[in-house]
């Protein structure tokens, strides 16, 4: 019955025009039916299904995780069609590469019993037991009862079912595939409020968020909510490392954001400063300071006189947190706003996506953004450099 249902799935329009996703789905189903679930791990899937070498870096090449997310989405689309709802269900739970098999909900509650399987193999992406949903931990390893898992899987991919395909979608897909609420953090303003402190009150508790970061936070929050994905808002200095380990995180700000500076030591591009001079460093050419500003530049009225600003956009699977991390930070506020605009307006990402190295959709990515500043107003964002690994 399971193999017959697998063939129905693979013959549907959702799978038949692809090679990658049918190959992976067939492989994990057959391994599970053969009682060899202990072989279903991220590295082995990368080697057997996708032809990766034995020593390939799973963190830098998340092809297995990306393919699993796409399979979950397509399975949800298939079973969402009325004519398929009474069929036996093949599902791929969030946090696992081992498929589960369920009778249709219209039949009496029952499970599809298989030969005893080894304990569930979690992908290397998950580092702690606490990150796997508790309900699944309590389930029997040998049989699976139809019900709540279907709703959890559907909720995890619901946002993608309404997405038109675009370059911007491809950027956000590895971030929003995590069903946990995204942690969205804006940096604390470096300036203290003008009002006097109350007795015993700490200044750090009253500091606000710079206007450029507020604009960027609003843009990104609206994007995430528009994809019907849950989120949590934090001021960056109040987000704990434990929280960053629980879900994908978006950090807004650079020099005023401690977590950005602490977690941005990987990749080709980074932030540096010397006194009032701030710049983006190319770690493959440390001597170059072509992308920088000087906060000591003032006009005749003593106001800051900038004609351009720069920012780094980074999307990486962070080794320390084990989760996807997006950083959006400019040398000054104009750069941060331009980067936020680049990440939320499809026309900008589409315009420059052709410049990116092939395969960027499923790899770590850094973008360097430039914006012109005229009379204190930020211009449109422009992609001037990129790194994919």
In words, what does this structure look like?
The chain has 12 helices and 12 strands. The protein has helices at residues 2-11, 20-33, 42-48, 63-80, 134-137, 148-161, 167-176, 211-226, 241-244, 258-263, 333-342, 346-353; strands at residues 89-91, 100-102, 182-186, 231-235, 249-252, 269-274, 277-282, 292-294, 308-317, 324-330, 365-374, 377-388. The strands form 3 sheets. A 7-stranded mixed β-sheet has the order 4-3-5-10-9-11-12, with helices on one face. Strands 6-7-8 form a 3-stranded antiparallel β-sheet, with no helix packed on it. Strands 1-2 form a two-stranded antiparallel sheet. A hairpin with a 2-residue loop joins strand 6 (269-274) and strand 7 (277-282). Helix 2 (20-33) crosses helix 4 (63-80), helix 4 packs across helix 6 (148-161) and helix 8 (211-226) packs parallel to helix 11. 39% of the residues are buried.
Outline of this structure?
With 389 residues, the protein is α/β, with parallel strands linked by helices. It has twelve helices and twelve strands. It has helices at 2-11, 20-33, 42-48, 63-80, 134-137, 148-161, 167-176, 211-226, 241-244, 258-263, 333-342, 346-353, and strands at residues 89-91, 100-102, 182-186, 231-235, 249-252, 269-274, 277-282, 292-294, 308-317, 324-330, 365-374, 377-388.
């Amino acid at each position: 019955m399971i193999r017959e249902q697998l063939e129905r799935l693979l013959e549907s329009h959702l799978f038949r025009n692809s090679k990658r996703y049918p190959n992976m789905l067939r492989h994990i189903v057959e391994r599970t039916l053969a009682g060899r679930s202990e072989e279903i791990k991220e590295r082995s899937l990368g080697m057997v299904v996708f032809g990766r070498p034995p020593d390939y870096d799973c963190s830098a090449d998340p092809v297995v995780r990306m393919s699993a997310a796409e399979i979950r989405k397509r399975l949800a689309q298939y079973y969402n069609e009325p004519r398929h709802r009474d069929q036996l269900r093949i599902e791929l739970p969030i946090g696992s590469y081992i498929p589960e098999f369920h009778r249709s909900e219209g039949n009496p509650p029952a499970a599809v019993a298989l030969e005893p399987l080894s304990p569930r193999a979690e992908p290397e992406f998950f580092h702690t037991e606490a990150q796997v949903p508790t309900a699944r931990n309590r389930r029997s390893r040998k049989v699976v009862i139809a019900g709540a898992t279907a709703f959890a899987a559907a909720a995890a991919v619901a946002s993608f079912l309404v997405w038109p395909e675009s370059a911007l979608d491809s950027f956000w897909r590895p971030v929003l595939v995590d069903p946990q609420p995204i942690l969205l953090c804006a940096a604390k303003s470096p300036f203290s409020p003008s009002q006097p402190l109350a007795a015993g009150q700490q200044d750090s508790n009253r500091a606000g968020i710079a206007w450029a970061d507020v604009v960027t936070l609003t843009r990104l929050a609206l994007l995430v909510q528009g994809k019907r994905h849950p989120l949590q808002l934090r001021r960056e200095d109040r987000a704990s490392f434990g929280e960053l380990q629980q879900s994908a995180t978006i950090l807004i700000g650079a020099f005023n954001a401690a977590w950005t500076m602490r977690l941005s030591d990987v990749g080709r591009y980074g932030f540096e400063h010397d006194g009032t001079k701030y710049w983006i460093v190319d770690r493959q050419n440390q001597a170059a300071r072509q992308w920088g500003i000087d906060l000591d530049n003032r006009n005749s009225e003593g106001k800051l006189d900038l004609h351009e600003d720069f920012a780094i956009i980074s999307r990486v699977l962070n080794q320390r947190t084990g989760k996807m991390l997006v950083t959006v930070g400019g040398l000054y506020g104009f750069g941060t706003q331009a980067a936020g605009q680049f990440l939320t307006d499809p026309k900008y990402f589409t315009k420059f996506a052709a410049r990116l190295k092939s395969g960027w959709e499923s790899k770590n990515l850094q973008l360097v953004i430039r914006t012109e500043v005229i009379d204190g107003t930020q211009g449109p964002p422009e992609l001037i450099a990129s790194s994919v690994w």
